[in-house]
Specification:
The longest helix is centred in the N-terminal third of the chain and has 21 residues. The protein is about 35% helix and about 10% strand. It has about 400 residues and is of the alpha/beta class. The protein has a single domain, classed as 3-Layer(aba) Sandwich (Arginase, Chain A). It is globular and about 55 Å long. Belongs to the histone deacetylase family.
Length: about 400
């Protein structure tokens, strides 16, 4: 199969953005640099995504405690508030004040604002005023019910899913393509049969958080609602897309969601410093195209997309997430679209990074569809088959042929 280059119809879309989101800042030298958000917004603006008819910018807000308590424990929210007021007194047993997730003054408000962004996105979709919503500052998928982890304090995507459920949505599929397993979101909804969490990630044998294997399939009464595709290190575009298309569309269709929520961490990129996957910007965009298509076919278009990981701050993250926004809006900004000279000059001046000349990496995508056959000698195929054997029978699908 080859990638899609077709333009999409213009979709009523809200994009969450405000410079106040830059307050989510663990300090100089931390991989989760807020500059990645500023550069993404700047690029999106310069290629015209914020000015497309039918697109509106949505203001984030600091989520109330009641919103946070839909997915986090009272004790944990209280601990974050205390650490926010006194970083030196952080409760490390809850993951606060650690090397990965340092405490900082104002961390509660900054983290709750990310949640407010994803809640605003969910409310916009629920209202029917938009079909697509993007909060590229969100996607904090490692945050658990009672613990910070992996640069994530509050789980905004989980809060958005909880908001959808509270407003009467019966089934939600959450799709996570970050290089790291979406453990926090999976665990929050482990026992909830209304939510299917699907995570495509580098294997926990080689990457944090060490979880996300095929046999993690959901709690009692929710069997088959946790889906994990744990790929070997150094998986490249063809294997990644083969695995994605061998599992994600089939199980999403079987679950029949009313809304899709997705997490688009772009740390799977070959130039990311923290992971060992070898994925291009083009492949990341292709996953977004497929998710958009699934939302169009199954959910009357209702799709909420968030960001996530991504630590090549200047030359990868902005391109990947601007292309994500383009898919959500109309698809007209493509990998071959030139990077604006003014943006490239700004990145060079401010960050000392010389970027290429186009939005993409200049690769041609191709992958073997699952229908051409299973190769037991291929490590990726064995991974895919492990997932299909665990999950497909629970949804009335045949792991060999569907």
């Amino acid at each position: 199969m080859i990638s899609s280059g077709l333009s999409l119809p213009v979709m009523p879309t809200c994009i969450v953005w405000d410079e106040s989101l830059l307050a989510y800042n663990f300090g100089q030298g931390h991989p989760m640099a807020p500059a990645r958000l500023e550069l993404t917004a700047r690029l999106a603006r310069e290629v015209g995504l914020f000015d497309v008819e039918g697109v509106r910018l949505e203001q984030p807000y600091v989520a109330a405690a009641a919103d946070l308590l839909t997915v986090h424990s009272y004790e944990y929210v209280s601990a974050v508030q205390a650490a926010s007021a006194d970083p030196a007194g952080s409760d490390q047993s809850m993951g606060l004040g650690t090397e990965d997730t340092p405490a900082f003054a104002g961390m509660h408000e900054a983290s709750a604002r990310l949640v407010g962004g994803s809640l605003a996105a969910a409310d916009a979709v629920l209202s029917g005023s938009v079909l697509h919503a993007v909060n590229f500052s969100g996607g904090m998928h490692h945050a658990g019910r009672a613990k910070a982890s992996g640069f994530c304090i509050y789980n905004d995507a989980a809060a958005a899913v909880a908001r959808l459920l509270a407003k009467g949505v019966q089934r939600v599929v959450y799709i996570d393509v970050d290089a790291h397993h979406g453990d926090g979101t999976q665990n929050i909804f482990w026992d909830d049969p209304r939510v299917m969490t699907i995570s495509l990630h580098e294997s926990g044998l080689t990457l944090f958080p060490g979880t996300g294997f095929a046999n993690e399939t959901g709690g009692k009464g929710a069997e088959g609602t946790a889906v994990n595709i744990a790929l070997p290190a150094r998986t490249s575009d063809a294997g990644w897309l083969r695995a994605f298309h061998a599992v994600v569309p089939q199980l999403t269709e079987a679950f029949a969601p009313e809304v899709i929520v997705s997490q688009h961490g772009c740390d799977s990129h070959t130039d990311d410093p923290l992971t060992s996957l070898r994925i291009s910007v083009e492949a990341q965009r292709q996953a977004a195209l497929t998710i958009s298509d699934l939302a169009g076919r199954l959910c009357e278009g209702r799709w909420i997309a968030t960001g996530g990981g991504g630590y090549n701050v200047a030359s990868v993250v902005p391109r990947s997430w601007a292309l994500l926004m383009s898919v959500a809006v109309n698809g007209k900004v493509r990998p071959a679209t030139p990077l604006p000279a003014a943006w490239r000059d700004y990145v060079l001046e401010k960050h000392g990074v010389r970027c290429g000349e186009t939005m993409g990496d200049g690769v041609d995508l191709w992958w073997r569809s699952w229908e051409v056959g299973y190769d037991p000698n291929d490590e990726i195929d064995r991974t895919v088959m492990s997932t299909r054997k665990e999950l497909f029978p629970l949804h009335g699908l045949d792991p060999w042929f569907d």
